[in-house]
Amino acid sequence: MGTRRSGRVVRRSMDDKYKNEMMGGWEEDDDGTTYLEDTRKKATMAKRGSGSGGSTQPFCQVEDCTTDMSRAKTYHRRHKVCEVHAKAPIVVIAGRQQRFCQQCSRFHDLTEFDDTKRSCRRRLAGHNERRRKSSYESYGETSG
């Protein structure tokens, strides 16, 4: 039995099979040829690219923020906001005072928030409605 690597089939020993099954496993094509699972995934990822389509250096979107986000948590890199500005009560973006919404994972104008809350009114209303609905349903089941 052989493996496909870079378009060619090579023999593998039982030791190789065991070792690679532990580290990702072998898969078999319809024609019976086996290949390393990771090899196929890497080739697919290389064709697709990173998906960002832009710069490789992540930056916080808040004006004048120079935080190095290369070591930031995945969440902060994905939403392009450093940890400090994600929790800040007021930030300036495009000349407007805004706040990062924990529910939407984006910035909104301050007018969309109640007091010092970190979730916008629209998302809080939906959250509270779901809580009332489940509370009402469980309360209605016990009294009846």
Automatic annotation (TrEMBL):
One Gene Ontology cellular component: nucleus
TM helices/strands, residue ranges: none
Positions annotated to bind Zn(2+) 2: 101, 104, 108, 120
Annotated signal sequence range: none
Cofactor remark: Binds 2 Zn(2+) ions per subunit.
Name of the protein in question: Squamosa promoter-binding-like protein
Cellular compartments annotated: Nucleus
GO MF, one annotated term: DNA binding
Cofactor list: Zn(2+)
Coiled-coil spans in chain: none
Function recorded in the entry: Probable transcriptional factor. Binds to the promoter of the SQUAMOSA gene.
Chief place where the protein resides: nucleus
UniProt cross-references to PROSITE patterns, sorted A to Z: ZF_SBP
Domain of life of the organism encoding this protein: Eukaryota
Protein's GO biological process: flower development
